[in-house]
Every structure is written in C-alpha cells, then in structure tokens.
C-alpha cells in the first residue's frame, strides 16, 4: 500500500509529479502539501485528513495510534513551478517506452536479450531519434540486418514515437492514471522536442 501512486499538483493545481504513498504522506505531515479530496476538491492538512480517515473503511494505513486513508492526489503548498519537462533521450528510456518488447516479433524479453535497432539503418541515413530507435531481440535484429523493416519483411508492431510521460516522474500516463486524476493529468501531456 505504501508504494501505490499519488498524483502531486503544484500550488496552481497543475500535475507535476507522481510519488508513492509514503512520500506523499510525508509531504503532508511536514506541511509542504495538503490532501485533495477527489469528491469535492477540498484540501486537508495532516491532522484534518487523519480525522476524516476515522470514518473510512478501506484503503487505510493502520498505525498503533490511528488509521489514515491513502490519498490519491495532493497539492503542494510551497512549490508553484513545474519540473523539467524534457525527457532524457537515453537507452533506459527507450527500454521503458518499448516495455522490454521486441518491436518486430512482439515478444517480451529480459533487458540483456534485447538490442537497440535503427528502423532506418544509419548507413541509409537513419538517425538516433525517438522515432528511429526501437528494441529488437537478437534473432529479429540479425534477420533485419542493414535493411528497413519493409526491405526485411519485418513490419514494426508499433511505430516508435516520443514518449508521453508525466513531467520528471518517468511514469507512463496510461499506466498510472486513476479516475480521480483525470482532470489534472490531461494538462500534463506534452511533446518532447529532441535533437539528433
């Protein structure tokens, strides 16, 4: 329960990050954030949230002295900026985007069984960009060789694209969005501008 995701909003109520329950409750306890009620968007400090949690039956953390309901959304009381919105173009993030899945055969592999493949080979003018790099298993990469997917009759299961993640969190929006987050998360999509 302590590792469930909690949406973090800045003071302007813009989604800026995702944290686990432990971190979110720590921020609320220290006075850096307040819990947002998904029903009516009321905000609660730690003591008020603990008092409100007495009536809750589910999704609570029990301590020796009290129980406290797991928050879904918190709003920061001191931070009004936004985190860095660019996503680092890295091997790790390509693996995260493609979910350890070969983009030619569609099978999932361990990281060490996958390679990075240029959809349009570098020898044919292909560049290292989000739209031209995919994960490939060794057999598919060998079969494709120095050709395009069409030339090797190995169609991509999904065209590569720039990822759409929450700012700074590295978490895919499609994986972590809870219904109570929707009004806040819609504004968190963005296009990442990359240069080769």
TrEMBL record:
TM regions (residue ranges): none
UniProt-listed Gene3D superfamilies: 1.10.30.50
MF terms (GO), sorted A to Z: endonuclease activity; nucleic acid binding; zinc ion binding
Domain HNH nuclease: 89-142
Keywords carried by this UniProt record: Endonuclease, Hydrolase, Nuclease
SMART domains listed in its UniProt record: HNHc
One Pfam family cited in the UniProt record for this chain: HNH
PANTHER family in UniProt: OS07G0170200 PROTEIN (PTHR33877:SF2), SLL1193 PROTEIN (PTHR33877)
Protein known as: HNH endonuclease
Organism of provenance: Candidatus Abyssobacteria bacterium SURF_17
């Amino acid at each position: 329960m302590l590792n469930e995701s909690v949406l973090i909003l800045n003071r302007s109520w813009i989604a800026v990050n995702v944290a686990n329950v432990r971190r979110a409750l720590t921020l609320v306890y220290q006075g850096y954030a307040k819990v947002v009620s998904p029903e009516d968007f009321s905000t609660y400090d730690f003591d008020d949230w603990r008092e409100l949690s007495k009536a809750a039956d589910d999704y609570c953390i029990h301590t020796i002295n009290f129980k406290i309901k797991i928050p879904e959304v918190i709003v920061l009381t001191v931070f009004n900026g936004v985190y860095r919105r660019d996503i680092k173009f890295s091997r790790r993030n390509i693996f995260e985007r493609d979910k350890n899945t070969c983009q030619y055969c569609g099978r999932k592999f361990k990281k060490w069984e996958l390679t990075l493949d240029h959809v349009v080979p570098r020898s044919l003018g292909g560049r290292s960009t989000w739209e031209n790099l995919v994960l490939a298993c060794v057999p598919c990469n060998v079969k494709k060789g120095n050709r395009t997917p069409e030339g090797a009759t190995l169609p991509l299961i999904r065209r590569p694209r720039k990822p759409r993640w929450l700012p700074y969190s590295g978490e895919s929006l499609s994986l972590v969005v809870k219904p109570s987050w929707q009004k806040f998360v819609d504004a968190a999509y963005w296009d990442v501008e990359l240069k080769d």
